[in-house]
Predict the structure.
Amino acid sequence: MVLLARIMITTFSMMAFIPMLILPTEAVEAAEAPLNYFLYSDGPAAKPTMYLGWVLTGLSLAICLIITLLLLAALIRKRPKMDQRAIGNEGKGIHWIYIGTGISTLILFGLVIYSFMVVNKVAKPSQPTMLAFTVTGYGWWWKIEYEHDDPAQRFVTANELHIPVGQPVRIKLKSADVIHAFWVPKLAGKTQMVPGLINQQWLQADRPGIYSGQCVQFCGVGHAHMGLEVVAERAEDFEKWLVAQQQMAASSAISNEKPGYELFMERCAGCHTIRGTDAQGKHAPDLTHLNSRHRIAAGLLMNTPDQLMEWIMHAQKLKPGSRMPSFALSEQEASVLASFLSTLD
Amino acid sequence: MAISNRTHRRGNEHFERVPELGRAPIGSEEEARLANIWKSEPGWRGWLSTVDHKTIGLRYLVTAFIFLLIGGIEALMIRAQLALPNQTLLAPEQYNQLFTMHGITMIFLYALPILSGFSNYLWPLLLGSRDMAFPRLNALSYWIFLFAGIFMYMSFPLGLAPNAGWFNYVPVSGPIYNTGPNIDVFALGMVLLGISTTVGSVNFVVTLFRMRAPGMTINKVPILVWGTLAASVANLMTIPAVSLAFFLLWMDRQFGTQFFDVANGGKPLLWQHLFWIFGHPWVYAIVLPAMGIVSDALPTFCRRPLVGYTAVALATMATMLIGFLVWMHHMFATGLPTVSLSLFGAASMAISIPSAVAVFAWIATIWTGRPVFQTPFLFFAGFVILFVIGGLSGVMVAAISLNWQLNETYFVVAHLHYVLLGINVFPVIGGIYYWFPKFTGRMMNEKLGKWNFWVMFIGFNLGFFPMHIAGLLGMPRRIYTYSSRMGWDSVNLITSIGSFILAIGILLFIINVIISLKRGKKASSNPWDAATLEWSMSSPPPAYNFAVIPAVASRHPLWEDRLEEEGARRSNLAEGYILMKGHETLSTSPIDARPLVIFKMPGDSYTPFFVGLLVSLLFLGLLLHWWIFTGLMATASCIALIIWMWPQKTLAQRTVSGTAHPLQGDS
């Protein structure tokens, strides 16, 4: 009896544990997670994979439940009384292996075929891509180049990529230093950016919105702070964005007399480019249209004047190891620099 | 038991000998003589020079467990940092060193060495031998493991520990982006550790095929032996790849070679191939012996033999074979053509078929048996669930396009912890509870043991299950902090709480070990009423293991009287070959285990320690660019090896002639 009671206690405590294994923790929070590809994928490059994920998760939970129940039943099932010293027959029970392995093999065979079908669907877009961007991973930000046959139409920007809704867009992936991985999970799986190679993937958003991305291959001290955003918008908005990005910086901003401009040329131009000026640095994001972007510092901060100045003066604190130094600026310097940067639309 | 048609290895009659048959019960004159022959010198001399596989096995267990604790403390620091968003307990560089050392420690310095500990201790006892095939090599393997572990931790106190993750991708670990000694310590340490693993693996393979008791044909060895064999073969095939990779990386870093240097035509993907060709079979190497522990020990608590022995043994070997064909699933996102990915994706799913064999064998064993709810059994039964969860998440990441989402997120972190903790740590702790009476002569405390299991089991699942969800919410691995806006706050908090509960469980285990060592109940020779040979001798075993080399007739020599088999032959453990002209044991044929040769085993020796020490110092010289020192150490190691290898007449092997072995019921 004592043994039986013990078994019951063991079993109940195991059972109490099952719901915790199965239920996701906080559904509300999950919905808000900007990288939640599992529930909110969009577009033909990601959705078939999301459904595959659902099927596999459901199947896994079901199998896990069945095995747990089998195990529990095996633990607690009633047994005829026998001599305590008796030893069971070795040959008994072998059909478990035949049946269990047989069913598992059939399920796995089905899964192999299904997963191949999904790969086939998402590996290539069904229609040819008309648009292409090259994204280059840097420690720890993303350079984005618009590809076009006409060199005059090409431009460079950083950390924010716009795409038109409903169109497949080809992304060429390069790295300037170490291996990074380009991952905009709601739109497609990840692809490594391997130095010396040009990898390719494609994205397509079917609904307008902002899709967050993240470097997902460990790339050094700044790895945690290497985000990007893909903005999917209607075709006409996308055209407007293209045209705006192709422009040089507005000439009103860049007259030599303005102290903010001078300060920028002195402190920032070694690394940053502003097209249409002498600032032609190649080590850091192109700032020609800085204010068109939602976020700064590769997704770390919102692009507001306050956060921008916070970033300029405390970059090393906010993003340790970044190549952006923390600048010690006097109040007056900060304000003229801020007013200059505010003109980079 | 015909041995007449064996071939003579030597024509010289001087080397032929008829081994005496007899009995040597405890307290007899023969037994006293054996004990005298096999005992180690007392004090530090014996401590440095012993080649007793039991001592070496325990050293492996204790050392690996200490590394588990160190790795665990690193993990707790990581979890403290990630418990809340935007924490600044650790700087990113500190965090990177901690997660790297956590991975290195757990995977290289804990997971395989702990299993080598079990196998070293148990193999000769399971196989009916007096030692491993190469006792001195065994000691060398331990010393180099210890020194390599210390070597890899050398730069840790200086804040210069390896910091590029345990798989150490180039170029982030290359000379341009990683200028300190961090990676050199790792690279040279891995080459050094590779020596230890290689010689250990050779020893296991040879021991299995030459050192079994007569009558223990290849289809009678315990599953732990199959698991360790699979692991050893995998190691022998793949350690060269990883040692080469690390050596090439070290050359790139120190001498300007360009194997991985993109600017000069080197290939970063070469690293990934070389590493994972090793890395994936290694993953099976650190679970197959642990699965063997369960397959052997679980039946003891179900009061019946394992269901489907042959199927499970074949599944173990099949896992290893398929394991060579799955490495590219770590590289699905590197831009390789999808056709080649498909092959590896299919193989990665197929590898769960042999795992299914094992799972159903375990469940069937419990179902058809009569479970005895003692602490080791709880660990093994709990392990089955963790194994299934880890296996299923493994199938999920094997689906190529889903892998493009899941890989490098916390989903993979969850998967690998279910696999490594679930399939390695749980069987290991259960295995220690199981064999502790054999190791020490005392039982571990049952009550504390049950608490230990439940705290560990709950802490583990609470800690690691939410990681799956973090991965599905897009949380990448290896980020030192995260922002609240990502929606990962609560999963991380739960994970951190769970990991601390798990740590309390481990603490309970340590307390139980310490208490039981001093005050545990004295153990009889076979406290669990188990079936295999190691339980036929006193607890702890005598230095010579078997007073007479037993004759084995079944997989369950200690249960034969109670198994319902008609007319089966019986093993004979009381009477057998008494080999007592020095350190002697019997060697048998590889498949049928017919007696072939009397192995003259070497006695205790200092040379393994000194070879290990000198080779490790050689690596220290390489690390610090002390070239003259390196040259001296190389010379000294060679001299030590020559002393080791110096021919000794007493070690010439004797062929067995004349007698048949006494299996009961054999005519």
In short: Chain B touches chain A through 105 residues (CB under 8 Å). Chain B has 19 helices and seven strands. The longest strand of chain B covers residues 572-578. The radius of gyration of chain B is 25 Å.
